[in-house]
Every structure is written in C-alpha cells, then in structure tokens.
Amino acid sequence: MRTSRTVLVIGANGGIGREACLALKRHGWQVRALVRNLPVELDGIEWIRGDAMQRDDVLAAAQGANAIVHAVNPAGYRNWGGLVLPMLDNTIAAAKATGARIVLPGTIYNFGADAFPLVREDSPQHPPTVKGEIRAEMERRLAEASRIGVRSLILRCGDFIGPHAGNNWFGQGLVQPGKQVTTLRYPADYAHHHAWAYLPDVAETIALLLEREPELAAFATYNFGGYWLDGHSIADAVRRVTNNPNIALRRFPWWLTALVAPFMETLRELRKMRYLWKETIRLDDAKLVAFLGKQPYTPIDTALRTTLVGLGCM
C-alpha cells in the first residue's frame, strides 16, 4: 500500500497551478493549495489562505509536504523584479525545512541566441531580456540549493494553451476571449514555427515525473516539447475544431501595441518578448520522452477545442 503523499501548490488559482492540483489529485496525492483568495469550490483540495511573499505563510503551509509546486507569478507581469525572486526564496526555505522537492514550471525566456534553434537541458543561459535574466536566476538559485540538500525539478515549456491559461499569447494575441473566432492574428511570418504547451499535459507530466521521484537527480531538468506549429498549421487546426473553414489568418498588429503599450504593462512585456517570434526556438524533449517512455502530448485538435471552450470562443 502506497504511503500518503502531500503536495503544496503555491499559486493554485493560476493556470498551471490549477491543473497541477487536478493532476496530482488524480494520482493520489493529498493536495494543499496556498492562495491569497479562497475559491468557492473546494474540489477535495485543502485550501490555505496566505501570501507567497510571506515566508511564515509558506513555511506553515509546507509542513509535512513531500513536494512543493512553485506555480506562482505576479499577475499581469507586474513588478517581476520585486516579487519573483523573494517568492522563490521563501519556497526554497520551506523545502529546506521540510525536505520537500520543489517543482518549477520553467520557460524558454532564460535562453538566448547561443542556445537556439534547438534548446537542450544543458544549453547555455544568456537571456536577452530582464525577465529572462530573472528566470535564469531562479534556476541558478535552485541549482545552488540542490548542493545543500534541497531537491528540485524544472519542466521547461513553450507558450501555454489550455482551458485556464492566464497570461499567454494564444488567449491574448491570436484570439479574443469571449468572442467567436473569425480571425487568427499570428505574431510572426506564417511559416514561423512556435512551441506550445497544453497545460493539462504539463501538469500530468509533472505528476508522472513525481511518481518516479527517487530516480530524479537532485537538480532535475526536462524539456517539454509540446506542439511545434507554424501559423498555417495552427490556423488549420482552429478551423477544424470550430468547423469554420472561413477563419482568416492575419498578421498580429505589432504597430498597434507600440501605441498602446505605454498605458498597458501586459502589452509592454509582450513587446519585449517579440524575439520569440523572430527566432527559431524548439525544445528538445528527447530526455523527457526517454524517461517516460512516451510523448505525453494530447492531440492538438483536442487541446485547442478545450482551450477555445475555456476562453469562451466556442
């Protein structure tokens, strides 16, 4: 009989945090969630009101946890420099106190041109943006913590899609939430390929990796390849799932964001990441697939249908 396992999810009201709660619960974990605002539906999860910026809150919530999923991010990209690293430091302190393994959903922001076009787990990290530098520093701190016994797992992903995805290109750039899709606004040349990660698949992969936690390195990193699609392919998939062959593919209006960006922080941050739509950047997932023995990816049509329903576009 398996010993009961407890996971603390920090940022459970966000897209990846919510999906991680659901996936780990399916895999038999006792799920505890630290959030600032308690939800109406409890869903069999132990919800704890607290703030990831308050170390005492994180330490108290982590008592008895075997794993801590660090899925918290500042809303709307606000004050990344002042919030992201202190929140991670609190999680590291909690993991050190409890012996839990930290799980960090990673990104490709921490890589630069010397790692492109095929990013591997050990590719150099020389990011071209401040946000990328913060992401790289997060990984450096986890690597350093592993030398004093704090284990971690990083699953690096492309842009998120999914029913509850928060700040993401698909739901904020390609389509308009709450409106039937008539046009897809692609932020690059239509032949440009882009990496996408379906949130339920990411969460399920985290659960599968934690099932084999003793086999993981103290500082374990894996790339989540997801979908590698150009503009034509993603447009064709959206046309199929909406049963609307007349959906138009158009260019994303970067010129318009330049006018509005001074008044909207989210758009300012999106503009800083424009290089992701100019460079060829693909995550090499050979290590992950070899470890799991399979590609853990839902068919793209299923993933997009669920995403569009969640966004209110169908």
UniProtKB/TrEMBL annotation:
Highest taxon of source: Bacteria
Gene3D superfamilies noted in UniProt: NAD(P)-binding Rossmann-like Domain
NAD(P)-binding domain: residues covered: 11-105
InterPro entries cross-referenced by the UniProt entry: NAD(P)-bd_dom (IPR016040), NAD(P)-bd_dom_sf (IPR036291), NAD(P)-dependent_oxidoreduct (IPR051783)
The protein's name in its UniProt record: NAD(P)-binding domain-containing protein
Provenance organism: Dyella flagellata
